Amino acid sequence: MKKPVNPPILLTSLLGILLTSLAVAPVAAACSARTTETTKSESLAISTQQSIVDIASTNDAFTTLTAALQAADLVGLLDGDEPFTVFAPTDAAFANLPEGTLDALLLPENRGLLVEILTYHVVPGRVTADALASGMVATAGGESVQVSVGESQIAINQATVIQADIPASNGVIHVIDQVLLPPAQ
Length: 185
Fold this sequence. Notes:
30% of the residues lie in helices and 21% in strands. It is α+β, with helices and mostly antiparallel strands and 185 residues long.
């Protein structure tokens, strides 16, 4: 039987590992939210008739995000009529978490921590890239993220927006290259 993970210790450990890796690994400057060109095979399906959840669940880049939303019971929230902006980490971003972290987060006993992490990626309202401004932005989880808007890229905390403005019927998705972790409490 697996031992339940202590959420505050897990979050603190994740933050420490993430901060250490950020100090060592440079952020790829080639990822640009405003100037990224994508090929047809790289481009995400765009349909304003689909909800945020519909887009995530039908795109191969978001299978882990979709599974996490289901485990956290947040599908209903992001499938409703209320508009949201989602900073959506790709499967590759989740794969960069320390080994075993994602499996631990998906356990039923860690649902609260998973909800806290996922809602840290969600901002109430529809905020397109051209409406983003540098500064702190409140998330649906109650904590704020640091938005940094540059000439050629947008960063959310230490994550880079690699594709911006995927429209959905109930908001907008900005694809990011890292999983955002809320500050330890």
